[in-house]
């Protein structure tokens, strides 16, 4: 896992990383921002009705895989309030 905690994102800034039109696809989980850009299941910034560019902390708790997939994802920063 690549770790670059120097970058911080507000929720508004995170929305810019929606995976649409060639933009990177980022999501926040429990304050950590992950890059989903190269995850095939997230192509176009969408996955099972969820959209990149959002805080999915509550959503991932209900997913079959829960947080087990996070260890494979690059960390790009933190989400601020």
Structure explained in plain terms:
Strand 2 and strand 3 (32-35) form a beta hairpin. The model has no long low-confidence stretch (mean pLDDT 91). The chain has one domain. It has a 4-stranded mixed β-sheet. It has 81 residues and is α+β, with helices and mostly antiparallel strands. It is built from 2 helices and 6 strands, in the order E-H-E-E-E-E-H-E. The protein has helices spanning 11-14, 57-62, and strands at 8-9, 26-29, 32-35, 46-47, 50-51, 75-79. The chain is globular. InterPro entries: Cyt_B5-like_heme/steroid-bd, Cyt_B5-like_heme/steroid_sf. It holds the Pfam family Cyt-b5. This is Cytochrome b5 heme-binding domain-containing protein. Residues 9-80 form the Cytochrome b5 heme-binding domain.
Structural class: alpha+beta
Order of helices and strands: EHEEEEHE
Low-confidence segments: none
Largest sheet: number of strands, sense, barrel closure: 4 strands, mixed
Radius of gyration: 11 Å
| DSSP helix fraction | 10-25%
> What overall geometry do the principal axes of the alpha carbons give?
globular
- How far the N terminus sits from the C terminus, by CA atoms, comes to 24 Å
Question: In total, how many beta strands?
Answer: 6
User: How are the strands of the largest sheet arranged?
Assistant: 1-6-3-2
What's the number of domains? 1
Q: Helix tally?
A: 2
Mean pLDDT, rounded to whole units?
Answer: 91
Instruction: Please indicate the percent range of residues in DSSP E strands (runs of 2 or more).
Output: 15-25%
Domain Cytochrome b5 heme-binding: 9-80
Pfam family, one: Cyt-b5
Protein name: Cytochrome b5 heme-binding domain-containing protein
């Amino acid at each position: 896992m690549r770790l670059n905690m120097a970058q911080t994102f507000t929720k508004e800034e995170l929305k810019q990383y929606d995976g649409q039109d060639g933009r990177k696809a980022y999501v926040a989980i429990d304050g950590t921002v992950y890059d989903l850009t190269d995850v095939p299941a997230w192509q176009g910034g969408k996955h099972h009705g969820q959209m990149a560019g959002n805080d999915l902390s509550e959503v991932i708790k209900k997913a079959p895989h829960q947080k087990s997939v996070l260890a494979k994802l690059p960390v790009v920063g933190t989400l601020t309030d």
